[in-house]
Specification:
Helix content is 37%, strand content 15%. With 191 residues, the chain is an alpha/beta fold. The chain starts with 19 loop residues before the first strand and ends with a helix.
């Protein structure tokens, strides 16, 4: 399912911010949902959230935003553009990770966010379905912004708690060591 993550490298979340910090981190591609995330941020501008976009342009990709579109995003007052962030060391500063990608092979950033302790909201597709087995996660079946708004508003009214279950599951099934052991078992069977 995944190439695995080195779970020892991440700073884990220890508490949630009073004003929930909602993060979109991805290459800035239209099919990754960056424009929908901006729409979501704008629609909840007066609520108890702060919205952040992390990622870079991918000039070789026809779905990439261009530099003019990125400059327009940087001017918005309801979302902060961060550029590149060090996921392993900075992810714990946020509270909710949102994935609006139409297609995913396997969403590493959802996995990392779940491990660190963020709540995750993901558009359901083949690469995000694994979060259904985790706490503090919600799959959204379609790209209607209202559905993401509704889930964020629910989170804002909840007493949020961290999930140790997610860390246990990810260490046992999705860590680099767990994935390497699975490959080792396959090679031993084949020999």
């Amino acid at each position: 399912k995944s190439s695995g993550i080195d779970t020892k490298k991440y700073i884990l979340k220890d508490k949630f911010n009073d004003r929930l910090k909602v993060l979109f981190a991805s290459r800035l591609l239209k099919d990754k949902g960056v424009l929908e995330f901006i729409e979501l941020a704008k629609s909840l501008n007066n609520n108890n959230f702060e919205f952040f976009i992390a990622g870079d342009l991918d000039p070789g990709n026809p779905s990439s935003l261009n530099s003019d579109e990125l400059n327009e995003i940087k001017k918005l007052d309801f979302v902060d553009y961060l550029g590149f962030i060090d996921i392993e060391n900075e992810l714990h500063n946020y509270d909710v990770f949102v994935s609006l990608s139409v297609q995913e092979g396997f969403s590493r950033t959802l996995l990392e966010s779940s491990f660190v302790g963020l709540f995750v909201l993901g558009l359901e597709n083949n690469g995000t379905k694994f979060i259904s087995e985790l706490d503090n996660s919600k799959l959204i079946t379609n790209l209607k912004i209202e559905n993401f708004q509704k889930e964020l508003k629910k989170l804002d009214s909840m007493d949020l708690s961290l999930s140790l279950k997610n860390q246990d599951i990810i260490r046992s099934q999705y860590s680099s060591n767990a994935v390497a052991n699975k490959f080792k078992n396959i090679y031993e069977i084949l020999n």
